[in-house]
Amino acid sequence: MFGQSLQICLCVYAMKRKAMDGQVADNFIKFGVSFPSGQCETVAVSQFGSVAELKKTAQQALGRRFLRLAAPDGRLFDPQDSLQRSGLQDGDSLTAVAQQPKVAATWSAFALWCVGADRVVTWGNPPCGGDSSSIQHYLRNVQQVCGKGNVFAAILADGNVVTWGVRLSGGDSSRVQHQLRNVQRICCTYSAFAAILADGRVVTWGDPGYGGDSSKVQHQLRNVQRICSSGNAFAAILADGTVVTWGSPDHGGDSSRVKHQLNNVQQIYGTRGAFAAILADGSVVTWGYPDHGGDSSRVQHRLRNVQQICGTHSAFAAILADESVVTWGSPDHGGDSSRVQHLLKNVEQICGGGNAFAAILANGNVVTWGNPDFGGDSSRVQHQLRNVERISCTYEAFAAILADGNVVTWGVPLSGGDSSRVQHQLRNVHQICGTYRAFAAILADGTVVTWGNPDRGGDSSKVQYQLDYI
User: Does pTM surpass 0.85?
Assistant: First the structure.
């Protein structure tokens, strides 16, 4: 009798289980998701789910992050929509559009986004930009994110601006929010921001001592084409090639000494306390704190046919048309390249950290100089620095991306100079960005790898899951 009852109970349980499985299956719908290249996967999600959940499932199936899903007619689906609201039907075929993630950094935090996305993922020191939770709902159709010091600013597709981070350093833009319309570009010092509007005017906010107050020159800020910053001041290039400066006078905010020379200016570069401008004829004009590169008189006769300039904290390095290099400013920060001058031939790119420079030669080799403890001495890894394509830096370390997608690091270990903990993950690296003491690398499949000081963005473990929803 007991055995018969047990058999009946098991039979009833099996029938109920089969019915429940059928109901579960009925609640799921399938989609075909493919790349334009032809790779295709079939995925199943709950019909009561969202486009974001479908996107995450598709990303896992295709093995790549940062995808947008498109209908056959090219219409992009909003990740915030439910599947029912999106109009998607069981069996629909979708196209996966790969987005190129971008990353920006302040001194202590990272921000990662994709153009057109409604979300920015941030990590690192929370008060210094690492926590964007309070403004996340304002981030719609993000186009650009700019970061420096302790603040981020995002430009949206409608030209509005969203800021977060230390309030007094520009994280609070409420005073000028009504003016921030049709913003095209943003530039920042250590504690202030300057936005160029579509009509060529400029709006500034943040610490007045760092350029947050442009009232004294506001009448001159018309037809502004580009803005460059030092640590404490701004320099704007107008349509007629002249320059307007403001902020800390000693750090480049006062250009009156060289005003008569600042004509036909093509580009401006900054260190912590000085500016260097390249004119149309390839000559250079400098101003600001002398020991930070504001005095180039020692090398002025060599600054001819200058193509580009790079800065550290307190020194400049210029690449000439013949691909040689001229340096000036603080010797301890890279202003003296005499030790390696014979090696600086056929230079294609230069990266400046806080205290040292790293130059990539035409053959893919690297030459470094400046403070040896902060990346100016790369002898420990010199044999690995072959076929280098790009170099990024923190304040105290460098990271080089090789042609095969591998990465070589050097400098202060705790500031990103030691990547041994994540070296096995650093494969097929596409881009690297640095805070003051940490790096973030984005791989070809959208994986994000971080290392360096955990409090400065070197630990992204708490936000890894959020990256699936950008």
Answer: yes
